[in-house]
Write the structure tokens for this entry.
Amino acid sequence: MPRPIHAGFSLSALKHNLGVARRHAPKSRVWAVVKANAYGHGLLRVVQALDDADGYALLDLDEAVRLREAGISKPILLLEGVFEPADLVQVDRHALSLVVHDYEQILMLESARLSAPVAVVLKLNTGLNRLGIAPALARNAYSRLQASGRVAAIALMTHFADADGASGVAAQMARFVECTAGLKGEATLANSAAILRYPESHADWVRPGIMLYGCSPFADVSADALGLQPAMTLASEIIALQELKPGDRVGYGGTFEARRPMRIGVVACGYADGYPRHAPGYHDRNTPVFVAGRRTHTVGRVSMDMLCVDLSAIEDARVGTPVTLWGEGLPADEVAACAGTVSYELLCALAARVPVVEV
Ligand SMILES: *Cc1c(COP(=O)(O)O)cnc(C)c1O
């Protein structure tokens, strides 16, 4: 028998969450963001479940080609554009849409041999200072693209630094509006946080990512409160039990010491499955785990293939009792917060060795 761990993927949750994005941005079309293997959920599975999206946005040329080869005919946007001139051969062959975020990419387009003009999304840096043309150069970049004879429609894009935080989107939106004034083209600005919080940012296309997978982009609002359903449930089972006496320690480094007699369970899930090693398992600071539908917590360090949970209050737990690490009933956001990260990282880190079940 294989190890009992598995990831359950709910296709209906994915569809439901796309519906939530649509209800928030009813006038916008939707680029479903499926980068990083659809946030760990499986690229093709997610694209097929989200057949109601208007297009798909990702990073890897290979992944985009894979979607075309699987018969996906909707627009596919390469969020970082091309990395070398040869990439444009594939872009041309598969009619992919391209982000253009710097002059190197404009140069590549200018000298490309294409069978048809490409759809380009000109990315402007309005404050994130990661990718994007400087606002002062927006017009120049736009004219160069237009004059290249290689591009069809030019859309305009920016990405927010803090749509989920205190500073919001106002300053970046103002910069975007100013530097694109008079430039023709559809606009796309909003990630999940902006979709949920700033209707004024919705524009022609929205770009939901994390919300599609049923997690909250906000530290202070739960996915449930946003009406989102978890798409991924990481589940396993208890594979061994230990009875501890006061003073007994658990796990590598012995970082947890029992203060009273207690029963713990060993769960078949470790950091090699994608569970965060930094999830704490101390008396006063630990990480929630569901065992037989009841809430308990980790004890000791997470190891490569196993972690331990307190079963003192779950007397009927035994070998084979089901465990939920995150997902249905236990938001990945909560586990992530305990481990000092965000749900994005947990979802993307789901290991290839974890068997998948579609539900
Ligand atoms: C990842 C990404 C998104 C989606 O962000 P979420 O916070 O997951 O909604 C949108 N736009 C761009 C450019 C991205 O890289």
Remarks:
- The chain has a mean pLDDT of 97.
- The longest helix spans residues 11-24.
